Amino acid sequence: MTLNDAIKKIKHLRQWLLFKKVESYTMVGHDRLYELYELVEKIEKQGMSGNFVECGVWKGGAAAVMAEIINKYGERRNLWLFDSFAGLPEPSVADGILAHKQYKRDKGECKIEDVEEVLLKVTGNKKNKVKIVPGWFNETLPAHKQSVGDIGLLRLDCDWYESTKFCLDTLYENVVPGGYVIIDDYRAWPGCQKAVDEFMGINNIDAELVFGSGGAAYFQKPFIVGLDKYWTAESRKYKKPHKRINEIYGEIIKGGSGGSIIDIGCGPASLGEMLKNSNYKYAGVDVFMQKIVFGRYAVFDLEKDNFKNFPFNEIFNVIVISGVIEYLSIDRVRELLRYLNSNLSNKDTKILITYTNFSHYSRKKKTYHPLWVNIRNIDDMKKEFKSAGFSIVKHYPSYYYISRRRLNVPHNAWFSFFSKYFGRQIIFILRQEKK
User: Which residues touch 45 (CB under 8 Å, ≥6 apart)?
Assistant: First the structure.
């Protein structure tokens, strides 16, 4: 063991202990397991939607690692495991002579009981989110494609050309924009590489292949294709109000006597649901049609639609923009702020805007959301608000995030230093300056 290996194991002791539990149930070495762990955890931290799917499970070591991370983050998704449990199919001509020789030596046979054993060993009895499907891919994948639903991570450990091609042809459509596809054998078997290259070429998938250890590679499904599907999936995550929306709701109700409110970028209108028994008249705006149960609703694409066609042109008592401006170019943010000032607000309007605190995120760039385009520090955003004609009444973090833990601590209980570096989302309360 080298010194670097020793340092890595000390730094990642928890992962190393997990890998020791599963190493007899997988042919994937520790380096590839580290890469898998980091990618899966990145997906969970970003809150990406979609289930995890593995095609080619063998004894379930890699699957157990994914199951453990799913449990760690609150079992928000299912893990689907597809394998024949009768070994590999016979390779084709495209797989080459070495593949045929390997097939004669070892067909990679395993049993479902092996997978169940390692899952029990790693996760205890928390297996309710794991779906094990035995059988050949050409029979099981089409039959379960609809049940699998959206996929956030598709891991292919299929070895051969035909199997890899069939999995991509069948399941890639389910992968959400921004989701990841791991090909464990990309550089290990020529047929696997050929299947991936052909698939990406035929479907014009403009994505960078990232190469890992042991011949593995992965790519991220581009956001350009099916962005509406991505936002549809994202909306489902926020049907129940999260911490930021709860804080905003508290600000609206506190001292508020009622009136009209517009929620720009409302998603599934969870804020509107909270306000339905209040004295506020709710209006929501989002990029595609949402099913809301309270108030008015209209469609508007904040990224590209002309503000001359904005569906509302009236003065509101409260304006809410939450989880929006990180996804817009700074020029588009300025245009939005000018529209608010000129058409939707007056000096009595209370404006609540949330923005990601990049002083916190700047130390952890790998946790950036892939769709963020407006990445600026808080002081720069303050200047933008003021230049658009708004004064800042106050601003504070909706919550603090320290060492992978979310702390729900009242914002006034912390010094500004902690707010700057550990406040993950900042809530701004603005008023229109006197003209």
Answer: 367
Question: Which amino acid type is present at position 213?
Answer: S
DSSP string over 304-350 = TS-GGG-S--S--SEEEE-S-GGGS-HHHHHHHHHHIIIII--TT-E
Task: Encode pLDDT of 24-45 as tens digits.
Answer: 788 887 888 888 988 998 888 7
Whether residue 234 has pLDDT greater than 70: no
Contact indicator for 193, 187 with CB cutoff of 8 Å: yes
Instruction: Single out the residue of 403, 406, 372, 364 nearest to residue 243, CA to CA.
Output: 406
Specify the residue for token string 């891919």: 137
Query: What pLDDT does 350 receive?
Result: 95
16 Cβ neighbours under 8 A, 6+ residues apart: 9, 30
Between the CA of residue 383 and those of 315, 377, 392, what are the distances in Å? 24, 10, 10
Query: CA 209, CA 183: separation in Å to the nearest integer?
Result: 10
Distance (Å, rounded) from C-alpha 132 to C-alpha 200? 28
Looking at the chain, the number of H-run helices and the number of E-run strands are: 16, 15
CA angle 79, 85, 89 (to 5 degrees): 110
CATH homologous superfamily of 3-231: Vaccinia Virus protein VP39 (3.40.50.150)
pLDDT of res. 9: 62
CATH 3.40.50.150 spans which residues of the chain? 3-231, 239-432
Domain 239-432 matching CATH 3.40.50.150: the answer reads yes
pLDDT-above-90 percentage for the chain: 39
